[in-house]
Write a structure and sequence with these properties.
Elements: E1 7-8, H1 13-22, E2 33-34, E3 37-39, E4 41-46, H2 48-60, E5 66-70, H3 77-92, E6 96-101, H4 102-105, H5 112-120, E7 124-128, E8 134-136, E9 146-148, E10 160-164, E11 168-172, H6 178-181, E12 185-186, E13 188-193, H7 197-210, H8 220-223, E14 234-241, H9 248-259, E15 263-267, H10 274-285, E16 289-295, H11 301-309, H12 311-317, E17 320-324, E18 327-328, E19 332-335, E20 339-343, H13 349-354, E21 357-363, H14 365-382, E22 384-385, H15 392-404
Parallel strand pairs: 1-2, 5-6, 6-7, 12-18, 15-16, 16-17
Antiparallel strand pairs: 3-14, 4-13, 5-10, 8-9, 10-11, 11-13, 14-21, 15-19, 17-22, 19-20, 20-21
Length: 408
């Protein structure tokens, strides 16, 4: 798959952006792969209490642009705080652009008033309407006509990205919603600076233009500032699954699982894909110490049942299954203490093959150690060991959902 899609080097990103801004953008144009870049800094921030305040501070400091791509952005205590700062920046004259998913954010339903306030302040909002065969065309509030959306049906936008001035990038698994802020959902974000942010910027611009948003080509020099890798650059690459045959996140997860020889941490709320589960088993059988972090009680009971069907094989292979006490929602992989992949992709069919997803790959022993210190070690300390299902009825139900898992 990757051989069919040329990888864009950093010096070609502005050229690709010029094409995106100068003409129509079709769904195939969003399938983009990147050569390895660098970050001048990378920080793992765990729990909403740790990542929301600096994220809000970054947005408040913006002087040239704020771009947000968010599956779940809803009114509430934390949503209103973000709305306040986005409105303030737009009223200052800073371009604020927002891509949200209809399923996750409900901007034309229950959250209509929330989004009317944003649009009224000058925030440009585009919506992915993956559950609507016919839908409005163009940004919210533009009065666009209704048109067919057949190529977009089923392709939910599950991404969570914040970009500030083309210099700061945030990628993680959490929505802008109260259950991530108050600890009910356990998640993380990675904050990066440096040249790799330009890759995130290009992905955002592609989605925004595909949805009918307009961006002045003259602004490209501001949107893509020249950035340095710093004194100790961290090898970094943005991986972006868009609907179609090219799925770099899926390929990267496969590689990390297959290449782990010493240690492997897998953090994911929905572990149902048989192929990936077999790869986790094989890593443990090769002798790697494998820790699989999952929620002790997942919010999706069908996925939880399917996952439990695979517990005996995982445990027999030597995988340590760790059930986090609250709803663990983070999605991350750490291989051999030297590579970290974190973002939005779950280990189930929809994320791996159908949704818009975005992850950040960092090759750094220091970042891997930071991940262990801030996420894995504390999570292991409070988690309970995964168990095998014993009741005949429970095992039968789990087997049935495992069979159906490609459709869940």
């Amino acid at each position: 798959m990757s051989g069919a899609t040329p990888l864009l080097a950093d010096d070609r990103l502005v050229e690709r952006a010029e094409r995106l801004l100068s003409g129509p953008v079709a769904l195939p144009d969003l399938a983009v792969g990147f050569s390895e870049s660098t970050a001048s800094s990378a920080e793992i921030l765990v729990e909403g209490s740790a990542f929301y305040p600096p994220m809000l501070a970054d947005i408040a400091s913006a002087s040239s642009s704020v771009h947000v791509n968010q599956f779940g952005f809803r009114p509430g205590e934390i949503g209103d705080r973000f709305a306040d700062v986005l409105v303030a920046k737009a009223q200052e004259g800073v371009p604020v652009r927002l891509v949200v998913d209809r399923q996750g954010s409900d901007p034309e339903g229950g959250a209509r008033g929330f989004y009317e306030r944003l649009v009224g302040a000058g925030v440009e909002v585009c919506v992915v309407r993956a559950t609507k065969p016919r839908s409005a065309v163009g940004p919210l509030g533009s009065g666009g006509a209704t048109g067919w959306n057949l190529r977009g049906v089923g392709h939910i936008d599950h991404r969570k990205v914040v970009l500030v001035d083309g210099r700061i990038g945030w990628v993680g698994g959490a929505g802008i919603e109260d259950h991530f802020a108050d600890g009910r959902f356990h998640d993380l974000f990675v904050r990066v600076e440096g040249p790799v942010v330009a890759q995130l910027q290009l992905v955002f611009l592609g989605a925004f233009r595909w949805l009918g948003g307009t961006v002045d080509p003259a602004s490209l020099t501001v949107l893509f500032p020249r950035l340095e890798g710093g004194a100790s650059p961290i090898p970094a690459t943005v991986l972006h699954n868009a609907p179609g045959r090219y799925r770099p996140i899926t390929e990267a997860i496969t590689r990390l699982l297959d290449q782990a020889t010493e240690t492997l941490d897998v953090v994911n709320p929905y572990v149902t894909d048989r192929g990936m589960i077999r790869r986790i088993e094989r890593a443990a059988r090769r002798g790697a110490r494998v820790r699989l972090f999952v929620p002790a009680k997942a919010n999706n009971w069908a996925c939880a049942a399917a996952q439990h069907h695979h517990h005996p094989a995982l445990l027999d292979a030597g995988v340590s299954i760790l059930g986090y006490p609250t709803m663990l929602h983070a999605k991350a992989f750490v291989r051999d203490g030297e590579e970290v992949l974190a973002g939005t992709c779950n280990l189930e069919a929809w994320s791996l093959r159908r949704f818009f997803e975005i992850d950040l790959l960092l090759r750094s022993k220091a970042v891997a150690a930071q991940f262990d210190e801030r996420f894995s070690a504390p999570a292991e300390a409070v988690s309970s060991p995964g168990e095998r299902l014993t009741g005949t009825k429970d095992r039968a139900r789990a087997a049935a959902f495992a069979f159906l898992s490609p459709l869940l």
